[in-house]
Amino acid sequence: MTLALLIAAQIAAAADPAEQGATPTAPVATADQETGDDTRTGGTISAVSSDIVVTARRRAEQAQDVPIPLSVIGVKELDNTGSFNIGRLQQLQPTLQFYSTNPRNSSVNIRGLGAPLGLTNDGIDQGVGVYIDQVYLSRVAVATLDFLDVAQIETLRGPQGTLYGKNTVAGAINITSKAPSFDLEGRAEVTLGNLEFKQAKASISGPLADDVAIRLGVVTTSRRGTIFNVRSGNYVNEQDNLGIRTAILYKPTDDLSFTLSGDYSRQNPECCAQIFVRVGATQRPLNRQFDALARAQGYEPPSRNPFDRLTDLDADLNARNVLGGLSLRGEYQLGSGTLTSVTAWRFWDWLPANDRDFTGLPITTLSQNPTRQDQYTQEFRYAGGGQRLDYVVGLFGFYQDIHTTGTQRQGPAASRWLINPSSALANDPTVLDGLTASNDIRLKNFSGAVFGKLNWKVSDRFTLSPGARLNYDDKVGSYVSIVRDAQGNLVPYSGGTARQAAQRDAIQPQAFNDEAFREWNVTYDLTASYKPSRDLMIFGTYAHTFKSGGLNLNGVPVVNGVVQTQLAQIAPEKVDHFELGVKSQFWDRRITLNLAGFWTEIKDYQAVVNNSSTSTLRGYLANAGKVRVRGVEGDFAVRPSERLNLYVNAAFTDHEYVDFRNAPCPPELSGGGTPTAANPSIGAPGAPGTNSPIVCDISGQWLPGISRFAVSYGGEYNLPARVLGKPGQAYLGVDANSRTKFSSNASRSIYTDVDGYTLTNARAGFRTDSGVNVFAWVRNLFDTRYYEVLATTPGNTGLIAGNVGDPRTYGVTLSSSF
Prior knowledge:
The protein is mostly beta strands. Helix content is about 5%, strand content about 55%. The chain is built from 7 helices and 46 strands. It has a 22-stranded antiparallel β-barrel. The longest helix has 14 residues, at about 1-15.
């Protein structure tokens, strides 16, 4: 489709001499166009006389002229700071949050919005769009690959539905790879560090013919795990990654080009263990809480200090993540603009194994949800205009097919752990031993859109930029969970023997098929920008947008044997977003200061809820009433000379559930009895053996994952030097980021707040003008102890598990380019 369209356009242009004289748009800056040791922050470059060129608005323009809050990180900053995947970008950008317990259970948020922390559900869309070379990646898991041959990364904050193919309510991460070059060039990099860290990168590019160029790249990363499993004798949570990428550029004329790209990435670590952090009292009877249950089976965790980094998980751990794809991008200079077509196919194979009881006891001996995804996208876009008007119009089509086949099996310790000790069944290990759920989950997801953005230069200083999007979503999904006992007998949805009732309490069978969500939506926005001088711009934006509705593909409540299929659909989020900002440069552009204030309100926020009408404590995905996120951001960079550059990026974010009355309760208000007319009282938080509320009103509480204050800061100083007769620069760089306390649970809990922390990274090295760079580095310089995420565990036993952050790591990197 791409090839046919653009060949037709080339023939049409050849027939019209006026079209042959069209002026190409400005080229996009690549790593080869960088100067010195530029430091990029806040969408600006702090070099004395240079500006970053970005494609945030689907055309090449200087970042300071784009009325969108954005941050840009170039290849040098990625390499120097060790930011080789999306997870590490958050240490440079305080408004970007990344949380992951494994690649599938990952979320990328901007300003705290995107996907609720800890919520993984194939039936909903993410709120932050991740694009690699203009191809949308539909799941964060497929974006966890190591960066390979990246030129720069743009992070756009706020809704981006009228410029980008897929509608996103929180922002977009736009990753641009280095293009094939008609000049022979190459680069190689090797890194060695503690924890047996080894990383190697290599790329080469050059011509195959006068009009054909190719680029090849490979990266491999390995590191010993940071957690020692005393049961297996292995270090787990390791890294074992391999990535390959190639791109072929065919440029038959100055006005026409095609780029065929392909990539393959494989991650295969023994991962991902969440380890014992603490026990918090719940309202469950005392003999059903963690310490009593553990004593009853003679169990004690290998350490109650999580920073001993020990675990005894007895189930298999695996996080094999295989992904890749092909894309064909065609660009044709047509008239006063560029016609672009992007055709892509991507796949994702997820082959996990987990220990879902988080202990060394054989409670859940098998837990895995292997997933296969195929994704197809097609985008047509034209960016053009004249002196007073320029515009982008586009068509976007997206199709996704996901098939998940999961298995959960209980072990010989499950009966005593999961069944009430007052029941004789609790002392019979055969009740739950071998109980197995076989899950089959399917989704077919289509999305199509027409979108456009207009920039009308009312005067030389004032510009109005309206945008609109018409979007259609069509999702069809099914969820089937069949439960059998160890003898292969089906466990019924309801009724049966007391033994079967106990089995059903452990794993609830259910099924629904061909549930569908279909809906049209309209997005619109308006940006006004005023530029009183070359180096000052003031802008304001209002956007009314949405996040697509979806389906509950993790199951819904079952009441008296009836699957509550009316709860299988989730309505779209409705978003109103306001933004005011200023972009400025001073001191002959040695200083850059960008400020932005924002206010975002979301109705029908997609979250995990409980439904009091069904009298069930099962959480499922539905719509909360309203949330609000508002704040102020600032990006500051100064380069007083070619020897020194400094930066500070800071964010204050105020966030709360404005209206969320049917939320799941935190663990300290869970696990107890159900209130009745005879005993309606609710127990105190953490009081054993008391009643628990069916739902909790958490209106006014924090959203998860957001710190009120976050800041990234650092700088680099260099001096002329000569080593082994080669001239160059000796340099010292420091980068740090600090954040305050944040909640790590959907409903804020006294047990799952993560205390604020500061991480400091440093590097010192020597680089030559000929492309050699050698430096020593240390990450987490002061060996700060911190948690990446904390999580409640199944069953309301009070066990809190978590991911401890990396300890101090250090190493040496050597790179050379030509």
